[in-house]
């Protein structure tokens, strides 16, 4: 009995001795974990979140371009969000993109909103002389193409004709018959898609006019999701329907006859998106089709293949 009691005593002593060691070991482990936490890294150091407006733009011009770009981000953000919310169950999505997967159009819109904008420049000094290419058909603006792939020129006529997004569905505009460049926001969306850093040379003009875009959604949905005009039409229609006039919008009904009239008269075509409006207050644009592709879209793809 005495031996057993002695053994228990030894056991107790051993427990008392072991306790500080365990505590020390726990403290040591805690320190090790803390040391393993990675230090924050500046992985996005140098990221550029805003477009650059060149010093050739005076304050009045720069303010209008800045506001137009802000509105373009609002338009494009909503186009992205509409797809994120409704996917391809959206009737408007199906109208413009058919049965195509949603990832690509979401991606183009998201790139414009949150992609790096380093070097993407808007200027006002007409360095290529294209703003007055033809006296009766001056340009609204153009991508500089091979001369400077990151640069876009905004010509003086833009300031007189482009409308604020606040005027969505106003001035007699509807999506089907209005020009895609009626608003600053959609005009600048078009111009940004030409910049290879944005459109990657993949977003192109596979179809131009409204009816062609609607057809493309059914025949070649894989091209519709990378068709510049389709992306513009979709963004305009969901903005009109969800935001400007909720539940109503201004989709309009395309009138085929208007595209068959002589070139000197008003046309609702999306192919005139690089061309100026005439003096009419209506959203349609004068036909300067001959200019299309010369300076705005050096790599124009004819037909949908
Ligand atoms: Zn174009």
TrEMBL record:
Record carries keyword Glycoprotein: yes
Keyword Glycoprotein (UniProt): yes
Entries under InterPro entries matching the protein: HRXXH (IPR029482), MetalloPept_cat_dom_sf (IPR024079), PRA1-like (IPR039124)
Signal peptide positions (record): 1-18
Pfam families, A to Z: HRXXH
Record keywords: Glycoprotein, Signal
Superkingdom of this protein's organism: Eukaryota
Family (UniProt): Belongs to the ZPS1 family.
Protein name per its UniProtKB record: Zincin
